[in-house]
User: Which sequence fits this backbone?
């Protein structure tokens, strides 16, 4: 398998990131050094007064093995570790695929530099604007959520935030969150604020200045964390996803990562699912004769069967949470908050169902990347 990257270097798009236990397991199986890659955290959802609405339940044995349900880190660190696990010369950079010709015996790739390459299998892990997805399934426009997220990180510990906790708080219109991170052996914090923002409205000119008053609406150390963060460590993303596809694979071509299931950061699991796609592809393709169209097609059909339900559920839940917390009509917000404060609804959904589905992946992954579960 030859990975092609269009840019001269494989680079992290962004700063903050969290991974759950299944991608950590997948990374370990792929030979990535995950030791002290991030800060293991326990997660609660709270209201603006600090009342806990949901406590994310992760089984004790998973916590013991992975340290918790949410591991906070910086993206460049993850990239560095992943690139270190790839033998020299395997990753081909500066190679932008510009055309795909799918024929019975294989797939012909044409690159922007004019080179042509034949491959028996094409996995399009080419992001939310995937050309491979367009080749397979036509136009699947991005779905704007009319939300944006501003996030940053700091190693200044003077804000006195509780370590190893994800404190995910909603007021009537904004989500404000802070969590621990580890980077190169140093402890710190990441934070983000998320609010409704029309997709076509220009970004605020000063991200740090925009984030500060939003963070000030929350109890605890969030505003202090934003204050002590260097403006250069603050980034913004408009939130968009892709409406889940019914099928990913056709013939000798499939999709992985955001190309298959671009997800709102409300899931905090898009990269995790992408890493697990790679794990399952490795497992399903181990021992397959890539020259046999039947064997390739059987493996990819199984891949769709295993991956589409889980990723669809995560994409849709993240989409709905964004709607509920940021696009509910103003008169309904007190009622929404009453329900979330006084019923087990949020606990059941984000405290139990969703983490249950994620932890169940560990069993589905089985004992190793080369042996089917
Ligand atoms: C604000 C924010 C916070 C998030 N937080 C989390 C989180 O906490 N946890 C989590 O798990 N996920 C999170 N996500 C989601 C996560 O960032 C994405 O799901 C993940 O980065 C997708 O990885 P990918 O490799 O599929 O796509 P990408 O990272 O987009 O990579 C695609 C690659 O393909 C290359 N490429 C594209 N076209 C071509 C071509 N024609 N030829 C050759 N190469 C090509 C690109 O250059 C790029 O390197 C978050 C997302 C956002 C926006």
Assistant:
């Amino acid at each position: 398998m030859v990975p092609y990257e269009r840019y001269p270097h494989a680079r992290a798009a962004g700063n903050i990131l969290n991974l759950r236990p299944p991608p950590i397991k997948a990374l370990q199986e792929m030979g990535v050094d995950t030791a002290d890659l991030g800060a293991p955290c326990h997660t609660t959802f709270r209201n603006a007064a600090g009342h806990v609405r949901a406590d994310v339940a992760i089984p004790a044995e998973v916590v013991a093995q992975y340290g918790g349900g949410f591991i906070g880190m910086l993206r460049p660190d993850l990239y560095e570790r992943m690139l270190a696990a790839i033998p020299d010369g395997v990753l081909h950079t500066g190679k932008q695929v510009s055309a795909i010709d799918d024929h019975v015996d294989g797939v012909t790739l044409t690159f922007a530099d004019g080179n042509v390459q034949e491959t028996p299998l094409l996995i399009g892990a080419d992001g939310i604007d995937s050309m491979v997805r367009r080749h397979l399934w036509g136009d699947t426009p991005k779905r704007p959520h009319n939300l944006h997220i501003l996030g940053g990180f700091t190693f200044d510990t003077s804000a006195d935030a509780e370590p190893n906790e994800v404190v995910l708080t909603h007021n009537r219109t904004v989500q404000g969150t802070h969590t621990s991170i580890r980077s190169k052996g140093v402890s710190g914090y990441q934070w983000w604020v998320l609010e409704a923002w029309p997709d076509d409205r220009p970004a605020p000119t000063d991200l740090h200045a925009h984030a500060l008053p939003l963070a000030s609406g929350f109890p605890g150390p969030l505003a202090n964390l934003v204050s002590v963060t260097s403006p250069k460590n603050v980034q913004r993303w408009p939130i968009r996803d892709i409406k889940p596809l019914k099928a990913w694979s056709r013939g000798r071509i499939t999709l992985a990562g955001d190309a298959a299931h671009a997800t709102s950061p409300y899931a905090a699991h898009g990269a995790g699912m992408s890493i697990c796609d790679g794990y399952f592809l490795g497992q399903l393709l181990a021992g397959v004769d890539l020259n046999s169209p039947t064997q390739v097609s059987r493996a990819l059909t199984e891949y769709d069967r295993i991956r589409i339900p889980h990723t669809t559920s995560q994409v849709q839940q993240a989409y709905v949470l964004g709607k509920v917390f940021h696009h509910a009509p103003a008169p309904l917000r007190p009622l929404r908050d009453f329900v979330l404060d006084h019923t087990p609804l949020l606990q059941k959904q984000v405290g139990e169902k969703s983490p249950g589905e994620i932890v169940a992946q560990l069993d589905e992954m089985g004992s190793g990347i080369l042996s089917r579960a």
Residues 4-7, 10, 13, 17-19, 96-97, 125-127, 131, 149, 151, 237, 257-258, 263, 265, 268-272, 274 surround flavin-adenine dinucleotide (CB under 6 Å). Residues 150 and 217 are 15 Å apart (CA to CA). The mean pLDDT is 96.
